[in-house]
Amino acid sequence: MTGALFLALDVDGDGAHPAAWRHAGRPPGSVLGGAALRAVTADAENAGFALVTFADSPVPPSCGPDAAGRIEAGTRAAFASTITDRIGLAPTLHVTTTEPFHLATQLASLDHASHGRAAWVVGAANGAVERQTIGADPLPADVLRREITDVIDVARSLWDSWEDDAVVKDVATGRYLDPAKVHHVDFTGAAFTVKGPLITPRPPQGQVVVIAHDDTGVTDRADVVLVTGTDVASVGTEAARVRRAGADLVVADVDVVLDADIPASTRLADLDAATPWPHTGRIRHVGPPAELVALLRELAGVVDGVRLHPAVLASDLPVLAERVLPELASAGLLLTPRAGDTLRTTLGLPRPANRFATTAARETR
């Protein structure tokens, strides 16, 4: 760790609080349109966030009076790729309800569309209602862990199924690709089989950045591991544990309610009066932006990044952009993306070698 942080922002709906839509300052249905997504991603990129994440679920986000629907996360990320040029884009795609081949293709396509800024938040929805969407029962814990592992493994194999220089595009000869550099993937998992190669050339990053929650049990398969804790000490304990298990980068999740035109405590009380915000297991900062800066300074000593979950994006994001990120930047504690860089470059992750190219090189010697 360098002591500097990269910051991620979750931009699902109108905010992390279930009653956020009541305080968004716009008609409730507008969150499903392109204008709302365009505004929030532009604001996040301009503020200096390294990454935005798009939450998702196989079922609606609420069965009560709150948010009743959302646009699929991969679609939102694809749209955002056309209106941004620096910030990373990380949709949640669920291994339990999505065909692995299509999942890998969708993410590779996002990396091409964004010129190397794609990431994947590994989702593993496993409730009875979620699994009913594919006509299946919830998976036992050990089977679920195997399913997550298998999907990540096959996705990584498929991303490597085209070597970097497989596409030739020789107009004179009419030769588009070198078939010797496009490799078959015959994968047999516990619950599925996949035959490659992928229909999409290798992603610009080589491998899309894989982000997993620490409770998925696949720390050794992920590039970035998300941890929770109710204070800095507990986050530090979790961060140390996942580092020992092989995590490259560790990111802490933090809920945020900031003083704006109304004090944070009053804002939260008003929101909770409509729909209480369930305990998330994350640090929850409710108060002045200066105290959030102090918290982030502390976290910079134990994690590589922090993902913020603002209660109401319309209220909290402007305060983050004006009074939190500039303070971190002026202190040299904020890692910000630059136009033209891939997400791996921003995060300090190496571009992986292609496993098939390495094997082919050995075989020709």
From TrEMBL:
Coiled coil: none annotated. Residues 32-258 form the Luciferase-like domain. One of its GO terms (molecular function) is oxidoreductase activity, acting on paired donors, with incorporation or reduction of molecular oxygen. The keyword Aminoacyl-tRNA synthetase does not apply. Gene3D superfamilies: Luciferase-like domain. Keywords: Flavoprotein, FMN, Monooxygenase, Oxidoreductase. This is Luciferase-like monooxygenase. It comes from Pseudonocardia endophytica.
